[in-house]
Amino acid sequence: MKKAFLFFTILLTFTGLLAGCGTSNSAGGSGESGEGGTVTIGYFPNINHVPAMVAKDQGYYEGQLGDGTTVEYKTFPDGASFMTALKTGEIDAGLVGPGPAMNNYSTGADVKIIAGGSTGGTVVLARADSGIDSAEDFPGKTFITPRVGCTHDVQVETFLKDMGITSERIGGTMKHITGNPAQYQAMFETGKVDIAVAPEPWAAVLEQETGAKVIINADEISFGETLPASVLVASGEMIKKNPERIQNIVDAHKKAAEFIKENPEEAKEITIKDVKEVTNQELSKEVVDNAWERIGFTYEVDSEAIQAFADSSYELKFLKEKPDFSDLIDKQFIQ
């Protein structure tokens, strides 16, 4: 039972070291011409970022960017460090969750969403001995999300608000705490939380290791089938300076999405291999299979879903001002 928890704790620690001490590939950030130089792609070693792993494994970036271009890769433990790297030119493009992209755009960062990456993957589970059988049992219980107002938090609180259930933060009875998903298993086992809002593969781990019960599945939670779980981003400056290079990056990304759709089992093998190479640990095939069922991979991006998500964040009082993301998304490269 402890094996999966130990693995993901090591994964988080190791990827944090990768992002912090520069042991991953160094950044190029050239972007001066359509060909030549170095292009650095950023991503996280998790299942929502499989398109980057596949493109890396299949050499799609190299193929699209040309023989004179060197492609390097840098992994990140969280959206904040990824966005810092993008803003400083340490990476040229990459996959990140929509939340960090939206939040940084709202505070004036030069970031554009240029394609979708994946959808789904947010699951709400109840502790096996919690006595919870449905969302109607949630009032008065304690739930955990990665952060206040994060993508997964907004999704579950939107879902519950529509049922007339709210957290103590906005006058309800549900107690909300936050923590890294690597802590969820221990918190279930000690009874500190009743409900976990878990991104994949954490939900699959909780099911396998603790017998947790799925209460709200990835296709049932608010925005579950429309909101991107990861998006491909670049800076507005890079788009203006070198649209040809951005188009090549997006074309490689599109080829990866198509590969995943046509070759799911091989894509799973690539995922397990890439995560092992980055973290020196190995995901079980069972966990990957279970998580895969709740995630979709696409280069399309739903602008309306992103705006609706932002509006809900405002209505739930996570944002002080109602945002307008009409200029955040640039779809010219996926047409």
From TrEMBL:
Q: Does the keyword Cell inner membrane apply?
A: yes
Write out the coiled-coil annotation as residue ranges: none
Where, subcellularly, is it found?
Answer: Cell inner membrane; Periplasm
**Any idea which UniProt keywords this protein has?**
Cell inner membrane, Cell membrane, Lipoprotein, Membrane, Palmitate, Signal, Transport
Residue ranges occupied by any Solute-binding protein family 3/N-terminal domain in the UniProt entry: 38-278
* Keyword Transport found: yes
Q: Quick one: signal sequence residues?
A: 1-19
Q: Name one GO cellular component term.
A: periplasmic space
* Domain of life of the source: Bacteria
* InterPro entries noted in UniProt: ABC_SsuA_sub-bd (IPR010067), NrtA/CpmA_ABC-bd_dom (IPR044527), Solute-binding_3/MltF_N (IPR001638)
> What GO MF terms are annotated?
ATPase-coupled transmembrane transporter activity
Record-linked SUPFAM superfamilies: Periplasmic binding protein-like II
Q: Which CDD domains match?
A: PBP2_NrtA_CpmA_like
Question: Cross-referenced PANTHER family, in alphabetical order?
Answer: ALIPHATIC SULFONATES-BINDING PROTEIN-RELATED, TAURINE-BINDING PERIPLASMIC PROTEIN
The similarity comment for this entry is: Belongs to the bacterial solute-binding protein SsuA/TauA family.
Task: Tell me what this protein is called.
Answer: Aliphatic sulfonate ABC transporter substrate-binding protein
This chain's source organism reads Bacillus salacetis
